[in-house]
Amino acid sequence: MPIYEKLMGNPFVDAGVCGICEWLGRNVQPEQITPADLEQVVDDIAPMMQTDAGWKNLHGVFPNSVLTNAAYRKQDQVELLKKECQGYLNTIVELEHTGDCMGCGRRSTNTWLSRTNIPLTGSGKLRNFYPTFAEGAGYCSACAFAIQLSPLAFVATGGKFLTLHSNSWKALRSWSRVCIDDIRQQQLRQQIIGSYNPGYANPRNGLFYMARTMSQFQEMRTDENITMQVYCFTNYNQGPELEIYYMPAPVFKFLRIVYQSEFKTAWQEIVRSGYLVNWAKVKSEEDYKNRTNRVYENLLRDISILGYFLNRRIRKPRGNWELLSLYLKEIKTMEQTRLEKIKQVGDFIAECIQESGSDRRLVRLERAKSYEACRNVLLYIIRERIKQGAPTPLFSLDDYVEYLFPESEDFTATPWRETRDLLLFRVYEQLHNWLQERGFVEFDEDNASDSNDESFTEQTEED
Questions:
Q1: Other CB atoms closer than 10 Å to residue 198's CB: what's the count?
Q2: Model pTM?
Q3: Helix, strand, coil shares, percent, the chain, to 5
Q4: How far apart are CA 304 and CA 173, in angstroms?
Q5: 159-198 pLDDT per residue, tens
Q6: Would the pLDDT of 440 be above 70?
Q7: Cα–Cα distance, 384 to 351 (Å, whole number)
Q8: Which of 141, 235, 258, 456 could anchor a disulfide with 88, C-beta 3.0 to 4.6 Å?
Q9: Secondary structure of residue 98 in the 3-state scheme
C-alpha cells in the first residue's frame, strides 16, 4: 500500500500531503509519493523555511521548534530540520487498514508529539490539554512528516493562518496550487516571506477570496457538491486560538457557477453592496477588503441576501432575473414554479404602474413593512388593473396561497418580505428606464453600486 492517499481526514495532514504533491509536480498524486520524493522535498524546502531566510510566521505554527526556538540560533537550523525530518522518514511505513494514529487512523502510533510539532496539540506536561490525559498525542511518522510541511498550503492572515479542508481532493489541490505557485515566485525573487499571504486579515472574507480564486480552475466543475471548511488558527505560546468557518456545498456551487459565467460582474456589484464603507473615500481594494461584508456573513449563516439584489435608492436591480433565480434555486432551494409565478405577477404590476403613469403603487409596495400592508398594496393594484381593463387577473387564489405567500412553519419567518422584494426586483428590472425618464428616480451613476439597501421605514395609508 502507498504512504499517503487522498483525503486522509486530518486537515493538517491533508494540507501537508497536498503541498508535497503540488511541489513535486501538478500531476503527482499521493499514492505515487515515495520516500525518495519526500527527501527531495525536504532538501528543497528546508533552506527556505528557516526564519533567518524570511519565513518568520512559523512561530505561530511550530513554537519552540528547531526553526523558531532561539536556543538553536547558533546551530545550523536547516540541518537540524533535515535531521528531524529524516528521523520521521527512517520509520515511515505504508498505510495499513487500521491504526491508532491521530492523523490517518491507518497506522500504529510510533511518536508522541506536542504542539511544538503538531499545531494545537497541547502544552508541555499539562496533560489536560491532551487526549485521554496522555503526555503528548500519538502520530505515525508519515503523518508527523506531512504536518511539518503543511505551511506550504497555509494562508497567512492577520497574524494567524487559514487551513483549508474539504470533501473534495480537487478543491484542496486547486488551492495548494495557488499557495505553491506563490512560494515558488518568492523563491525566484529571492524574497522569502513564508506562507501565502493575500492580505486578508478578515478570515471570512479570506474564505470567499479562496472560493473565488479556486472557481477559476477548469477542474472545479459546477456539478459537484463540494463543501469547504477553513480552520483559522494560531499556535503561539502566548495563546493558541482556533475558529472554524464552514461554507456549505450549495454556496460554493453557486459561487463556482457565478464566477464561471456572465454573472460575474453583477455578482461583484452585489458583493460590493455588502461592505460598510464610504465609497467616496475608497481608492483601492485594500481600503475595504477586510471590512465586514454582510453578503458574505449572511451566506455563511444561511440568512437571505435577497435585499442586496435591490438598489432601492435608484430603483434598479443588481443583476438580472436569471442571476436572482440561480441564487434562489441553488441556495434557498426555491422551486421554479414559484419563481415563474412571482415573475408573472411582477410583470403585471409593472404594466399596471406604467399604464397609470404614476409610481404611487410602487412607493406603497416599497414602504410595506408588514404582511397586511403588502397584501393591501396588492388589493389596490388588483382594483386598478380592473379599471384599466386588464384581460387577466393579477393572480388566482391558488397562486396567492401556494406561490406568493405559502404557509410557513415558523410564523416569524413568513415569506412576505421575500415575495415583496422579488416583486420589487422584477418591477425595477422592467421599469427602471421608464422610471428614470419620468423623474421617478434620482439617478446618480456614482451611487449605483454602493447604496445602502435598508427598506423605507415610513408607512402611509392608501388613498
A1: 16
A2: 0.88
A3: 50, 10, 40
A4: 31
A5: 899 999 999 999 999 999 999 999 999 999 989 999 999 9
A6: yes
A7: 11
A8: 141
A9: coil
